Amino acid sequence: MMFITEIFSVDKIAFLVMVSLFLSGLITGEEAISGFSNPAVITIISLMIITAALEYNGTIGLLSDFLLPVIKWPLQLSLPTLMLLVGVISAFSSTTAVVILFVRIMPEISRKFNISLEKYMMPISFAGILGGSCTLMGTSTNLIVNQIAIANGLESFDFFEVTLLATCLLVIGIVTISFLSIFLLRKNNMDYANRKPQPRYISYFKVLENNPIIGQTYKSTKLYDDNQLIILQIKRENRVIRHPSFWQKFKKDDILVVSTHKDKVLSLKSNKLFEPISENPDSSTEDFNGAVIELLILPDSNLIGRDFGDLDSSDLEGGMPLAINKHRSMFNSSGKFIENRISRVRIDPGDRLIVQLNGNNDESWNYNDTSLIMDHRDHPNVSQNKKYITLGILVLVIILAATSVLPILESALLGVALHLVTQTVTLQHAYQSINWQIIFLLVGLLPLGIAMSNTGADKYLGEILLVLFQDLNSNLIIGALFLVTMLVSGVLSNNATAIIITPIAISLANGLNINPLPFLVAIMLAANFSFFTPIGYQTNTIVYGMGLYKFRDFIIVGGILSLIMWISSSLLIPIIYSM
C-alpha cells in the first residue's frame, strides 16, 4: 500500500521493510544486510557504470547517424525500423539512455521533416522495454530473477536464455505497435513547442518591504484576480496558513507557496516586490539572471528524496532552483502533496525543476546529475577514440558473458575496471552514475525473499496456488502467472514485483513437480511489460512528460499491447521451454 500511495520514496519503504524484518525476528541482522553483497546488486551497479560511460562519451549518440536516413521513409517503414533499432540497442545497454537520446533529438527532427512525434515516441519507449528483455543483462529484473533462482538451488540462466522468446515477442510487438500507432495515436498538426501543455509549478516567493500588498487582504490585491496564480499556503515565521481565505492579510517577509506557470514564475522573479526564495537560509537568488533550464527528474537522479525548499545552487552545479512541477498520479496530486507536507515538497521521479543560471556561467554550466535537460544540450566534447573504446568494452563484456568465459558479474566488473584504466569514465562520474534509489530498493527488498523462505510463506502461498491451478494445463498456469505478474508490476516497480513473486513461482513449480524455468521466464518478461500505464516503467514516464499523450493513451494502446503480449507469451513459453 505504501508503494501505491507514495507516502515515502520507494527506497525508503524498502529500507523500512528490511529493518522491520530483522526487528520482528523473521531474519537475522546478517540476512538483513545480505543484499549489499548480493551478486545481482553488484552486477547491476557495474552495468550502470558501463551504461553511463556509453552515454557520457556519446557512444549511444552514434545511433543518430543511422536515424536521419530512416526518418525520411514513410511512417509504415520508418516506425518499425526505428523500433527494431531501439530494441536491439536496448538489449545490451540502458533502455532509459536510448529513449532519452530520442527525447532530445526527435523534437528537432520533427520540426525539420514535419513528422508527428505522437506516432513515434510511445512506440520507441515500448520497443525499448521489449528489447531490454531479450538478454540477461538487458534489464535488472532478469538479473534479480536469475539470482533468486540460484539462491533456491537452480541453475543460472544463460546469457541468451530468453533471447529466442523475447525476440519473437519483440517482432510481434513491433507489428502490433506500428498498427496501433498509425490508427490510434492522434496526430496534432501544431508545432511541438506550441502544443506542449503549460505545466503548473510550485514556487516560494518572499514578500519584500514596500510591497503594496502588505497590510491588505488577499481579495483586495491583484494576486486574487490573477487566474494564472494560486496561493497554496502562506508561511509566516513558524506558522503555515493553508489555503488562505480572501480576508487573510499579508505581512512583510511572508513566504507565499504559489502554483503557477513558468512564465509567471519568471515574471514574479523580475518583480522587485517579490523574491524567489529557498527555505535553505544560505540560499540566495539575487545573482542569478542567466539562462533558464528545465530539468525532468529521472528515477536515477541524485535529487530524489530531497526537499525542494532545501535545495541551493551547490546542489545544481551553480544553478538556482526556482520552481518545481510535481508529477501527478491517481493517488497523488500537487495540492494534496503540499497540504500534507506543510510546504515541504519532496522531489520524486517525473517532477520538473525550473533552474536559473548565473549570467556568468551560462555557457560553462554542465550538470552532472542524470536528470534530463528538457531543452537539449550536447554531450561534452569527447574524442572519437573514447567513443569506440567504450563501445569495444561493451562488446567485450557481452562476449565474455555470452560465451560463459566469465560469469556476467565478473564480466561487468572487468568492464568497469577497463573504463577506469582507459579513463573513459572517472571514479566521480562512476559514483554519480549509480542509481542509488534502485540499489537501496533491491537491498531492502531482497531480504523479504529470505523472510518468506524462513517463515515458509513462499511455500504456503505456493500451496494455495497449487490448489487453484492443479486442474489447469500448463498453458493456462503460465498465462495466469504472467497476467498476475504484469498487473502487479503496473502498481509496484518491476524489480519489487520480481522479488515478491519469484519465490512463490518456484514453490508452485516444485509443488506441481514440473520444471520451474518456464515460470521464471514468465516472471522476467511480465514484470517488465508495464505498457498500460505511464508510471509503470521509467521510459514511459519520460515520454509522458513530453506532454504528447494523455493517461488514457497508455491505457488503450499499452493495454492492447499488454493483452497481445499476455496471449503470445502464454502460447510460446510452454512451446519453447518444454514442460
Under CATH, the topology of the domain at 197-373 is which?
Alpha-Beta Plaits
Strand order, largest beta sheet: 3-2-4-1-5
Main sheet summary: 5 strands, antiparallel
- Unreliable spans are 189-196, 329-343, 375-381
> How many β-strand runs?
9
Briefly note the structural class of the backbone.
alpha+beta
Shape: globular
Oligomeric state, counting identical vs distinct chains: single chain
How much beta, percentage-wise? 5-15%
CATH superfamily of the domain at 197-373: Regulator of K+ conductance, C-terminal domain
Instruction: Return Rg in Å.
Output: 25 Å
The CATH class of the domain at 197-373 turns out to be Alpha Beta
Q: Roughly how much helix do the residues carry, as a percent range?
A: 40-55%
Number of helices: 24
**CATH architecture heading of the domain at 197-373:** 2-Layer Sandwich
Report the average pLDDT across residues: 79
Distance between the ends: 35 Å
